[in-house]
Amino acid sequence: KKEWCCEHVGSGCSTTPDISSDCDAGWANWRNSWTPEKQTWCCENTGRGCSDVARDPYDCEAGWSNWESGWSADKKDWCCEHFGKGCSRPTTAPLYDCSAGWANWLAAWSDSKKDWCCATEGKGCSTMASTTSPPLFDCEAAWANWQAAWSVPKKEFCCERFGKGCAPSTPPPMYDCEAGWANWRDGWSMGKKQWCCEHFGKGCQSQPTATPEYDCTAGWANWESGWSLSKKQWCCEHFGKGCPGSTPAIVFDCEAGWANWERGWSTAKKEECCRTQGKGCTGQTTIGPVTPRPPIEVRYCLIWGDPHIRGFDGSHVDFYGEGEVWLIKSAHVHIQGRYRATPFTAGLAATEAIAIGGPCLRGHRLIVEPMEMGHIFWDDNYVLTNFPSTFDADGFGTVSYNGEGQLVDGAMSHYEKHIVHIDFPRCGVHVQVLRWSHHINVRISMAPAPGGQDGHCGNFNGSPYDDTKARIIARVGWAVDRDELLFDQYVPYRDTVHRTIDDCEERKRDAARADCMTARPGIDSHMLEACIVDVCFSGERYAAQDSAY
Hints:
By secondary structure, the chain is an alpha+beta fold. Helix content is 29%, strand content 14%.
């Protein structure tokens, strides 16, 4: 009865929980909700709840009300860097967006963001989450079935405090009536046609029985410059072809017309067939057999953990900071990542989202975010809202969402896996994104981009030695420029906590080394060091999730 009443109405809850029972419970707010006894016990036994006050050279609470004139320059610099306090007055963009993630600020915001938003906007203050009595409801209990099992008061309480149990915002539409519109008659299911007809007037079955005014298949490969305005309007209205901004992704038959390619092929076909099959290249002749190009080696780049990066050329780099960065930047394909600190990484950043776009997608973009804090978007539309599912990216490729993938090894077998598989042939990339609750891991496979490339994955020139952190930053900068951003929200890049293997306490470091070598026999020295850092500062669960690589 105590348990039931505590869960449903907040009565009968124990006020003296066993401190050794669960060091996961209340972890997101441990500084305010755990007793000193529980902090001590969990610190000694699990490495959680350890206070780092003794190592801080300055107390950033002392003298806060008069920091501008009362603090020394060194204290201002230190408190600004570590807690967002004492910073010079911003003249442009604020240090943090205090509206972003507000619904789940307690778990999702870093300590420095909480302090900054509390001081500047009165949001994220510790007093908003602290209490002198046990919480009214346990927001972990029955979480798997919260919609049916939780009472209305519990949903409201858990939504306000922890961002759990919130009433869903406007749900995504049942169908994306823009996706596949150019071929809706043959490509859409009957259910999608009926739904899109009813809601958007698209895909309706009524159609003229008389001879059509235009043949919308004739000249389709060159419709933009070859069709008249009236034909474009008619074909757009009746068949979804020739609409403004609907340039299709064309797949060319590089055998058709080969004998007269120089005069008969379009420039786009020449470029595509030259790139993919070595045919139609400038200066080429059709006399004699075509000498096939040597196969292009496809390699991969890994982005995982805090974050650690293994580049295409085999380099190993760790980046510390929050903001939007270039993973791959070429003339043809753009792939950007967003690094953010999470509640589970002790102030270290992790990869929060990835965005794919560029000329190869002709203005479209795909964004993949974590499970609990994000969605999957094609342009501005929700996609892959069911698991498993598959999405046709308007003819540019396919995006699948399931639990399959070679990036998962035996160490991951006890975790449920949610993997997004992205195949964009025109971009020349295959991307796998492993979604966790608050971060993602990424594997990008591709051949070297024509004309060169750069970014955190390296310049793919065959040498790992010029892909150090300093050289990458010198070539592409710290962050993506605002006018090149694929994400909707711009977050100015800022440095965050730096942790190395030397910062890990010796006893914990030795235990982490043994665990990493047991879980991943034959691991190289770079990967081993990354694994040890993850175990030391982010916990075994976080490190186990990232052992996919």
